[in-house]
Amino acid sequence: MNEFGFWEQWGLELDDKQFANAFLVLGVLATSPFVKGQYSPGKDLQEVLSAALKLSQEKNKLLQWRFPKRDQRVRIGDDGVLLSGLNSRQVANAWKDVVDGTAVGPRVQILSYPATEGISPWFRMLFEADPAVRAAHIVFDTAQARPHLKWPLRLGYIPGNAAEESVKSARSVWPSDELTSSVRIDRENANCDVLLFTGSSSQLLKTLLEIPVPQKTNLFIVRGTFEDDLSAMGQRLSAIAAECRASGFVFLNPTVTDEVLGRAVNGFVENLSHNQPVDVAVSGAFTRRDTTDSVIPVIFLSEALATFQLEHVLEKIHSRLMNLPKAARPQIESDSFLRMGIPVDSAKDDLTIPENAARKLGEYRSAVTFKHEGSGAWGMAKMSRAIDHAESQVIDEKLQQRFLQRQILISKEGRFVEECRVFRKGIPTLIRLRIGPPQEKWSLLDVPFPVGKLPKDREEWRLSVVLTEPNHLKEPRRSTIMLPKVGPSTECEFRIQPGEHALFEGRITVLHRGRILQTGVLKGRVVGHERDISSDDTISFTDILSVRSRIGDLEGRRQFDIAFVLNHSTDHRPHLQAIAADHAWIADLSSCKAIVDDINTALTPVAKSVRDYEGGLESDHCRKLLVKLAQLGRYLYGYIVEDQLEARGNRSEIAKKEYVQIVSTRVEALVPLEFIYDFETPDDDAVLCPKWREALEKGACTEACGTKTGKIVCPLGFWGVSKVIERHALTTEFAAEGGELFLQSEPTRGRDVLSLSGTAIVGASEKVEPSVLEPVLSACAEQLGSPPQKAENWNQWAEFVQRFKPHVLLALPHTDGNGVNATLEIGGKPIKSIQIKKDHVKVEGDDTYPLVALLGCDTTGTALEYGSPVADFRRKGAAVVIGTIATVFGEHAAKVAEMLVNGLAQESQGLERLGEVI
Question: Is 60 left (phi over 0), alpha (psi -120 to 50) or beta?
Fold first, then answer.
């Protein structure tokens, strides 16, 4: 017989209410302090209960409770008493006598329970006591800091999970329709306050681990079984909490309907709006008479979350107001303050001035009322939304300019002292970094850190900082800093010891959610002695990769799993720096140059011998080509993945990530990572996987595909097919001048959604037959809603762009030349790539940023010495440019253009991500 079953037998003569009282007493006795005196059942038992109850009421603490054990002895008076030896009716009556006249039941905090038997039956029993227990929860130990719930409360759901309907149900009624917002948990929105989930705890953990970005939530409400493996339950909940920084769980009966769950969640929000602590708000909502029979909750909370109240949000609102720039004007209405119980003088109090609103809130914060949902809670919600909007609308970002800064210190006579001239060989050196306003003791980059473009709904941001130096560091160093909305960030430190190489050139990269924001370089000589330092020696700190000011709101951007930076070391060798969630590494790419040439050589015959390849992938010529490309891709795999990711101490699983950002700081560093081949190197006579079409449709191979044997070649093995890759190349102008180069334009606010309708501009090389181009023109007319304009030359192309403001530009050019002499030809008339003007892309001052497709000969510049047409079109204002690698036959380019228009037009109805669609 399990423990609870024993106690049910012990109280068999009691009715349900009496047994609930007795069971509650047993847990209090197993925990409470002891009262001295002669033991006599009744009197001293009541004294013990009275003392415990009084302690919890006087200090507003929780009534501590432990699951009683049948063989447990407790001390009542001067005697040790066996719990199971107590008379059940005397125990029940003692509780009734102690709480007689008490209107409000206690808040119970459960400190321990049996880990090998069901929780729901005995946990539910606690709420049957008289007077009704106000709240009960099992203590959940967590390493998380005190939680902060935002207001309005963010209700999260995972796409495809049945709990989405419950969120909709909750938000369809008052007060949740005003006091909450819904959050779809995905790569773009990873944070919420309460996340609803349908499924077991095991399924929840698996789902969270599969989400491609770190997810954060305070409280999980889970509809489903959690006791499928009791022995591992605690470990599983801890794993979920560690993954999401969670502080609590509410588990519900899996049969609960969306309507009932939505009603319970709405009740929770209503309780919070009355400033109830979270434990009371949760217990009240999920044990109400209209829900308890079907919900049957089990509640786990950390003490910090259990005691959290809505009034705690006031401090954060006040802080946000104080931190707003003076130029900001949050549209805070006087009604928000009046509903909160704060008096407003409309003639004197201009609440749109942050300082005024903050002062008023600070003065009356303790007087805010929460009598009903439309009072303090409603006013706080309206005020928070006004602050959110103001933060996103701040125009004068110079008021907040902050810079990536460094300090260099070396060990001298047992302490670290500042050193700005050189690095000292063999001497412990401290590189200290932060982001902040200019300050005398800190050297800073000239270019401001793009802090104004970080997600607006955060009070602070966690940024990754990576230091790489191929000659002095065996592996990259990684750290994190916290950047608040105003003022300097926290500091991070890298301890190094320079080696023999005469020059130190350390690259410092700052990222947010896997996206590179800024890169600087620390550069200085390395000397052995003080006498070797010259008067003009200095350690420079310069910006080598700055995100343009129009990068847009990163919160609306796709989060990347991994970022690559392709650049050069001081000895002009190409290097790859790769950064993932918690790891980084570098690679010398010198050996890849020959592979790049071989890839272009392998692809070019496809255009020059069209008939040999017209049978598609299943023809023998295409099979051989695919095998050749896969073999070359395995060379790249060896250089990038096997030599780096699978090296000792590294992380091979990073290569499995799906979303990749590539930034090339110099064109010479361009490596076609799209051709990396994941599967086993195919034999020369390998055959095309018979299930290749099914694999592409599903995005994954079946276990029976045979890709590990070398006898099979599959298109899905290439990174360019299996991953979504965003590539940032550099402009030919900068390359020709030999200057440091910059990241190209990206989708920005107002450019994050591509409208494809309207008049398209189409141009083609004279080598493209009119009959071949006709299907492209027809597709544009049918799918984009207007007949396209066919440009006979680049001058007419520019005229059409200015007249029609197109959303789509399709060019099927012939490319020729190399370097700065590279040309693009349409209609028999070439233009140098460097001569592409803004007029060829968009109307100056207009907010139309088109999609450009350059489908021709090596338009991405994989084998070119300088730049590529892709970079030129991007720089002149294109939102996205699609290019091709190696020579593409005109008829094939036209077919691709036709498929592109049809595919994008169809998929765009669902606002799909461009990279995913392609």
Answer: left
Query: What letter represents residue 702's amino acid?
Result: T
Domain boundaries along the sequence of the chain: 3-133, 153-309, 312-395, 402-557, 592-727, 751-917
| pTM for the whole structure | 0.57
* CB-CB contact of 411 with 429 (8 Å): yes
Return the closest-CA partner of residue 165 out of 41, 294, 260. 260
Contacting residues for 892 by C-beta, under 8 A, at least 6 apart: 606, 607, 610
User: What are the distances in angstroms from CA 349 to CA 168, 353, 360?
Assistant: 38, 9, 9
Q: Residue 741's Cα: distance from chain center in Å?
A: 28
Cβ-count burial 281-296 (b if 16+ within 10 Å, e if not): bbbbbbbeeebbeebb
Our CA angle for 646, 647, 650, nearest 5°, is 75
Can you tell me the distance from the alpha carbon of 775 to that of 793, in angstroms, rounded to the nearest whole number? 20
- Amino acid of residue 470: P
Residue 713, Cα to own-chain centre: how many angstroms? 34
Question: Is 817 in a helix, a strand, or coil?
Answer: coil
Q: Which residue in the block uniquely carries the two structure tokens 């004294």? A: 47
Residue 886 is encoded by which pair of tokens?
């190696």
Helix axes of 3-10 and 16-29: crossing angle, nearest 10 degrees? 120
Paired residues of 250 in beta bridges: 221, 299
Quick one: which of 883, 807, 894 has its CA closest to 851?
807
- Residue 168 to residue 871: CA distance in whole angstroms: 44
One fold for 153-309 and 402-557: no
Rounded to the nearest angstrom, the gap between the alpha carbon of residue 330 and the centroid of all alpha carbons in its chain is 27
The gap from C-alpha 477 to its chain's centroid, in whole angstroms, comes to 22
Cis peptide preceding 788, ω within 30 of 0: no
Element (H, E) at 831: strand 829-832
- Angstrom distance (rounded) from CA 406 to CA 408: 7
DSSP 874-911: HHTT-SEEE--SS---HHHHHHHHHHHHHHHHHHGGGT
The end-to-end CA distance of the chain, in Å, is: 61
Superfamily name with CATH number, domain 402-557: Immunoglobulins (2.60.40.10)
Residue 2 corresponds to which amino acid? N
Q: What's the rounded Cα separation, in Å, for the pair 676 and 655?
A: 10
Q: What is the mean pLDDT of each run of 10 residues along the chain (918 residues)?
A: 91 94 93 52 71 73 91 76 90 89 85 88 92 92 78 95 94 96 86 95 90 86 79 85 92 92 95 96 85 74 94 92 86 93 87 92 93 94 91 55 92 90 94 90 87 72 90 89 88 94 91 82 92 90 54 44 58 56 55 74 72 78 91 86 65 66 54 83 90 79 75 89 69 35 33 72 90 90 86 94 92 78 87 88 83 73 52 80 73 83 62 64
Tell me 711's DSSP state.
S
**Alpha-carbon distance 742 to 547, whole Å?**
7
SS3 of 154-209: EEEECCCCCHHHHHHHHCCCCCHHHHEEEEECCCCCCECCEEEEECCHHHHHHHHH
Nearest to 725 by CA among 675, 680, 678: 675
CATH topology of domain 153-309: Rossmann fold (3.40.50)
252 membership: H or E segment, kind and range: strand 248-252
CATH placement of domain 751-917:
3.40.50.720
Going by C-alpha positions, the residue among 711, 709, 715 that lies closest to residue 692 is 715
Structure-block tokens of residue 430: 């401290």
- Cα separation, 219 vs 249, whole angstroms: 6
Q: At what angle do helices 770-784 and 890-907 cross, to 10 degrees?
A: 10
**Distance separating alpha carbons of residues 575 and 589, to the nearest angstrom:** 5
CA neighbor of 44 nearest in space, from 8, 83, 76: 76
Question: Can you tell me the distance from the alpha carbon of 704 to that of 236, in angstroms, rounded to the nearest whole number?
Answer: 33
